[in-house]
Amino acid sequence: MKFLDRAKIFLKAGDGGDGCLSFRHEKFLEYGGPDGGDGGNGGSIYFEGVNHLNTLIDYRYQQHFKAQRGENGRGANCYGAKGKDLILKVPVGTEILDESREYVLADIVEEGQVFMIAKGGKGGRGNTKFKSSTNQAPRRADKGTTGEELWVWLQLKLIADVGLIGLPNAGKSTFLSVTTRAKPKVADYPFTTIIPQLGVVNINRRELVLADIPGLIEGAHEGKGLGDKFLAHVERCRVLIHIVDINQKDILEAYEKVRSELQMYGCDLDKKPEVIVINKADIVDDELAEWIQNDFIKKYNKKVFLISAFNKDDRVNAVLQEVERLHSECLQSELDEMQKDLETNSFTETEENIASFGEEIL
After folding, report:
1. Is 127 found in the same domain as 44?
2. Nearest to residue 13, comparing CAs of 64, 66, 62, 63?
3. Do 175 and 87 belong to one domain?
4. Whole-prediction pTM value?
5. In a shared domain, residues 152 and 218
6. H or E stretch at 9
7. Backbone dihedral region for residue 79 (phi beyond 0: left; psi -120 to 50: alpha; all else: beta)
8. Which residue, among 185, 314, 298, 323, has the nearest Cα to 243 in the 3D structure?
9. Cα torsion for 320, 324, 329, 334, to the nearest 10°?
10. Is residue 116 helix, strand or coil?
């Protein structure tokens, strides 16, 4: 299935049906009075999150969606039927933005989550509704109102716990393949990965989802290469694994390039907890590899791991242990923030979030 993570579509909710202008026409009933029924309401349009989808490809070839119109009212006080609602299925992790892409209208983050994006028009009133003591034969019936219509952007952001970042050909796909059951394409040339890949890794009896995105290049935040298109997929990640190829001419510069792109992209990507991994350490002697590792530690004051993902180095497990530790700290920090909100606001929604976070930590 082809991967598509952005789509622009037009939505039109159903118009309300018209009210009916009618009078009773029965034998021996000279003054039958009004009997026009109301029109039915137009159908509304909803988005629903589902887990069995992982792409927006369905919205590439069909871009206009309309809900059913409400039926018109009829005589004998028959009301028009309501228009059928239209429910559009989207992958969990889909954001719905306005046409300008400046405002997020909804964020579908759970399976079964439903959001009404366009409300159907209201059915018009039949002339029966206008009958009064002073107007026994009203000749008025309302038209149905128009259903809402709008253009929206759908943007899929994969829901993953950990994001793999780095320059092209740094070994991200290899790392994913040896730590999970995912089978990404692995080859000795840049941009082997052209779409995001997901894999599940088990660490300390916990399952974490890893996302591998296409390699970043300088200027990625401006649209160069493939990284700009897919950086959104690491926005939801709590921890980043930054893989650096030890075979670079200037390894520190290679690291700084990616960090700079994260900062210029925004969304606080550069502030996420990061695990620095120097890959392909087996192609240089141990003394040089340790010198490079110490140089990183001295300059950035962070833990730095030397591994050889291709050879399934035992040190890969140490990386995963650090990732799990940082991820747990992030969960605990978010839980503490929610508890503070609860003490301040006593929101029921906050209590529910704390309960779900507690389960995730356990």
Report:
1. yes
2. 66
3. no
4. 0.71
5. no
6. strand 6-12
7. beta
8. 323
9. 120
10. strand
Domain that holds residue 26: 6-156
The single residue listed with the structure tokens 């309309």 is: 66
Taken in order 262, 264, 269, 272, is the CA torsion positive or negative? positive
Measured CA distances, 31 to 24, 70, 136, 206, 361 (Å): 8, 30, 9, 77, 74
Length, in residues, of the chain: 362
**Tokens for 93?**
């992790």
Residues 131 and 174 in one domain: no
Residue 87: name the closest of 61, 106, 113, 107 by CA: 113
Residue whose entry in the numeric block shows the structure tokens 């290679």: 254
Q: Judge if 83 and 117 occupy the same domain.
A: yes
* 342 plus 222 within the same structural domain: yes
**1 located within any domain:** no
Domain containing residue 307: CATH number:
3.40.50.300
Q: Are 122 and 167 found together in one domain?
A: no
206 shares its domain with 352? yes
Residue 31 has a CB neighbour count (10 Å cut-off) of 8
- Token readout for 106 is 């909804």
For the chain, how many structural domains are there in total? 2
Helix intervals (H) in the chain: 58-61, 172-179, 227-230, 251-265, 286-300, 315-345, 348-361
Q: Show pLDDT as tens, one digit a residue, over the chain (362 residues).
A: 455 678 999 999 999 999 999 998 877 777 778 999 999 999 999 999 998 887 888 898 899 999 999 999 999 899 999 999 999 999 888 999 999 988 999 999 889 999 999 999 999 999 999 998 888 889 999 999 999 999 999 988 877 888 888 888 788 888 888 888 766 544 443 444 446 778 888 888 888 888 887 766 554 444 444 445 667 777 888 899 999 888 888 888 888 888 888 888 777 888 889 999 998 888 888 888 888 888 888 888 888 898 888 777 678 888 899 999 999 988 888 888 878 877 776 555 555 565 555 555 55
Q: Under a CB-based contact definition with an 8 Å cutoff, are residues 241 and 323 in contact?
A: yes
Give Cβ neighbours of residue 100 (< 8 Å, ≥ 6 apart).
none
Q: Determine the distance from the C-alpha atom of residue 204 to the mean position of all C-alpha atoms in its chain, rounded to a whole number.
A: 28
β-pair partners for 7: 154
DSSP code string of 83-139: PPPEEEEEETTEEEEETTS-SEEEEE-STT-EEEEEPPPPPPPPGGGG--SS-SS--
Residue 217 falls within a domain, yes or no? Answer: yes
